[in-house]
TrEMBL record, chain A:
Family matches, as NCBIfam families: sigma70-ECF
Family membership noted in the UniProt record: Belongs to the sigma-70 factor family. ECF subfamily.
InterPro entries given in the database record: RNA_pol_sigma-70-like, RNA_pol_sigma-70_dom, RNA_pol_sigma70_r2, RNA_pol_sigma70_r4_t2, RNA_pol_sigma_r2, RNA_pol_sigma_r3/r4-like, WH-like_DNA-bd_sf
Protein's name in the database: RNA polymerase, sigma-24 subunit, ECF subfamily
UniProtKB/TrEMBL annotation, chain B:
The entry's keywords: Membrane, Transmembrane, Transmembrane helix
Lineage, opening ranks: Bacteria, Pseudomonadati, Nitrospirota, Nitrospiria, Nitrospirales
Domain of life: Bacteria
Name this protein carries in UniProt: Uncharacterized protein
Transmembrane spans: 54-75
């Protein structure tokens, strides 16, 4: 990802031309950062929604380009827009309850058993195991409120600090800390409640 | 025991998330780039249209205000504008007004 000093000044010039009215130049930005935005969005929302969300990200970035002050790197500014767009995705779908909440099947119960019995994480080299794990993750997150889902992903799965998560979601640090802890407790409770007797 | 189990599960979920986002991110194609740029141009055009719609009523209102102020200055017989506008009005041939700028 090009973000050295010379690239930064070239990027600032490019942004200046776009703001001045050369809209077609925005395609340079879209082509340069699209893979980056797709990758981030894929971490937060279902694969089938990534393409549309990424479009929203670039339209929002174009609309807000004049507000980019160059203090942070452009890609971090874009990352914040991407995270907020993914949050909006979950808010929309949570309200309409479009995503089904399935219960755990035998295969997934078997997943828990394997994870508990295995000491290393080497078992994730198995693609079938990876697929089951993604299903487990989707199942575990399904009942969470949009903000809880985003915080679990940002803080516990992606490893961002509470401060970074707060900045990306435009919330206070205290608010994020409380909500993240609450979301984690909720997730743990759900997992424990659904483990078959004898697993523990 | 319970804590150990939940920690293992959480570690597994973290690993799964890492692997899933590494391998399954879809990639944009030309159709996608065209769709983004079409939307971006539409946003730009909508902004330009809104500006156009705003500019002419604003220009007309500003001109009306300026004219009202000028007429008031001339016919009230006072104010700093009076002498300047008086020169223009009393000088149909424009000779005196021209001298102001020479």
């Amino acid at each position: 990802m090009p973000d050295t000093h010379s690239d930064d000044s070239a990027l600032q010039e490019l942004i200046g031309r776009i703001i001045a009215g050369d809209t077609d130049e925005f395609e340079v930005i879209v082509r340069r950062y699209s893979a980056y935005v797709f990758k981030i969005a894929a971490s937060y929302i279902p694969q089938e929604a990534v393409s549309e969300a990424a479009q929203e990200v670039f339209v929002s970035a174009f609309e807000g380009l004049a507000s980019f002050n160059g203090k942070s790197q452009f890609k971090y500014w874009l990352r914040t827009i991407t995270v907020r767009t993914c949050y909006d995705f979950w808010r929309t779908h949570y309200k309409s309850r479009e995503l089904p909440v399935s219960s755990l099947g035998e295969v997934q119960q078997g997943w828990f058993q394997r994870v508990i019995n295995e000491d290393s994480m080497g078992l994730f080299r198995d693609s079938e195991m990876q697929r089951d794990t993604v299903e487990i993750l989707n199942w575990a997150m399904a009942g969470l409120a949009p903000i809880e889902r985003m915080l679990i992903t940002l803080v516990y799965l992606e490893g961002y600090s509470v401060k970074e998560a707060a900045q990306m979601l435009n919330l206070s640090t205290i608010n994020v800390k409380v909500k993240a802890l609450r979301a984690k407790a909720k997730l743990r409770k759900k997992i424990l409640n659904n483990l078959k007797e004898g697993v523990l | 025991m319970k804590k150990n189990v939940i920690e293992k599960i959480e570690k597994a979920l973290r690993e799964a998330h890492r692997l899933a986002s590494q391998y399954t991110a879809p990639m944009p194609d030309d159709k996608w780039y065209n769709a983004v740029m079409t939307r971006v141009r539409a946003v730009h055009d909508a902004k330009a249209d809104a500006l156009q719609r705003f500019i002419w009523p604003f220009a007309a209102a500003s001109a009306a205000c300026a004219l009202t102020a000028a007429l008031y200055a001339v016919f009230s017989g006072s104010g700093s504008g009076y002498s300047v506008f008086g020169v223009f009005i009393d000088d149909p041939s424009g000779i005196s007004a021209l001298q102001l700028f020479l």
